[in-house]
Design goal:
15 strands, COOH-NH2_lig, alpha+beta, about 300 residues, 5-stranded antiparallel sheet, 2 domains
Amino acid sequence: MKTCSIDEIRTLYVDGKFADIAKNLPHLRKAADPLIQFLMASNLLKMKDWLTEKLFTVGADPEFIMCKRGTEEVVLFSSQHTTERYKLSEAAVGADYGLLEIRTPIFTKPKELVKHMKVSLDDFMEQYEKLDILKKEAVEFNHSRQRIREQIDSEDIDYGVRFNAKEPEVWGANGGVSIEDLEVMNYTLSAYGKPMFNKPNPDIFSAGGHIHVGGAYVKMLSFDQLKALIRKIDQAVRPLCEAVETEAGKLRREIYGFPGEFRLKQYGFEYRSLSNAIFWEENSKVLSKILTIIMDTVKTFATQE
C-alpha cells in the first residue's frame, strides 16, 4: 500500500477521513511536520469505532429564568407546571432547580439548532400562557426560601418535561474524549488551568447558555489539545455573547461563566462560559454566528496549530 504524503494527510484531515489517516499515520510518525506531530499526540490511533461516527455535532441546554407574564416576578419552574401536553422526563424541556431548560437533540449544522430553539420556545410559550421568559442572565433572588414557601419538594427539582410525541433521542456515542474515567464529567474544568472554586450564592439566581460540542474532530484530541481548542473557542465567542448581555450578565459572572469553563461529556465537551442571552429570540443571529465559529474552529483546529 502506498503511503500518503503529508499534503494528502492534510487533505484527509480537512475531509474528516480519519480511518484513512489512521492507516497512514504510523508510517509518517517521525515527520517534523506540525500537523503530523499534532495527530501523533492526539488519540486518533486509539479511536477505533469513533473513526466512523459523525465528524461534528452540536447541541445545547440553555436555561431561562421564568416570570409571571406581564411582570418581572420570578417563578420557579418545576414539575408542578406540567400540562397535559407534557410529561416528566429528562429530555426536550426540563426544570433545572427552578429554571426552564431547553434540552436539544444533537445536530450537525448550526442552523438546525437555531431553528430547533425557536420552534421549542414558541411551542412552550403557547402551552404556558401565564409564564414568560425574564430577559436577564441573573437576578438577586433567594430561591431557597422561595422553594420553602412554594413547598417544592426535592422530587420536583431537576425533573424534565417533554412532548409526548416521540421518545427522546440518544445523545452521542459510547466512550470519552481523552480520559477513560468519565466520572470527571461531573466536574467543571478550566481550559486555562485555573482553579474553579467559585462559591454558590443563595441570593443569585442565574441562567447559562451551555453548548454541547462533539464528533470525531473533538474525540480525537488529547486532553491538552482539547483545552487548547476550548481556549481558542472561548476567546472568539465569549466577547460576542457579552456584547448582547444585559447588566445582569455581570451578576451571573460573579458565580458562573468564567472564561474557558467546560465539562467532559461522552459526546465531547460542554462549553459553559456563555450566558443564556444568545438564546433569546432577538439574538438568534448572534447564536448562529457563535455556533458557526465553534464548528469552523473545531474542523480546522489541527491545521491552525
